[in-house]
Write a structure and sequence with these properties.
mainly alpha; Rna Polymerase Sigma Factor, Chain: A; Arc Repressor Mutant, subunit A; 9 helices
């Protein structure tokens, strides 16, 4: 079923929207949650919570042309919040490592000198992503939004792991430049 038709089912409050969503995107959403939580049970919980949150968010949102991105955003936040809530070191490992990679670009949110208005940061990130060609943007998002490891990304794009690492390092440098030019970083 096409995304527009699924969103229509949500809009008319037809419960079959959830089963169609699960059928089309369930595996991808669960895989995203599992990469973050590193736990099958938690990933199932995140996937189910995503459907509930989508049910409650559509309407007012109408993600007809970006349903998967909408759902992935919800899943990602639910999984990150679950990890934060659990405070289990092994479950936080997946995104702590990525946070270390981005530290040179985006300072920690609890740092008083680096507290930034979320809207300004979002605009700056969107501007940065808009400057990248599709392949670089996809590699960046696969690493820092979907939490894919370097090996998975290199396999998907047909590049060596060292090339992916190198590309990501250059992209982080460009992101830092963008954030500096927008006045977000000194």
């Amino acid at each position: 079923m096409e995304d527009e038709a699924i969103v229509e089912l949500y809009l008319v409050r037809d419960e079959s929207a959830i089963s169609h969503t699960a059928q089309k995107y369930g595996r991808k959403l669960k895989a995203l949650a599992k990469r973050i939580t590193e736990d099958d049970f938690a990933a199932d919980e995140c996937e189910n919570d995503t459907y509930m949150k989508a049910w409650n968010s559509i309407p007012p949102h109408e993600p007809r042309t970006y349903l998967f991105a909408f759902l992935a955003h919800i899943t990602r936040h639910i999984a990150l919040n679950l990890c934060e809530k659990n405070h289990a070191q092994k479950r936080q490992g997946a995104f702590v490592d990525l946070g270390d990679e981005l530290d040179s670009c985006i300072a920690a949110p609890d740092s008083t000198e680096s507290v930034v208005d979320d809207i300004v940061l979002k605009e700056s990130l969107n501007k940065f992503l808009g400057t990248l060609d599709e392949e670089k943007r996809n590699i960046f998002l696969r690493r820092y939004f979907f939490f894919d490891d370097i090996e998975t990304i290199s396999g998907s794009f047909g590049y060596s792991q060292s090339k992916i690492k190198s590309l990501l390092m250059r992209l982080r440098g460009k992101l830092r430049e963008q954030l500096e030019s927008d006045g977000i970083l000194p």
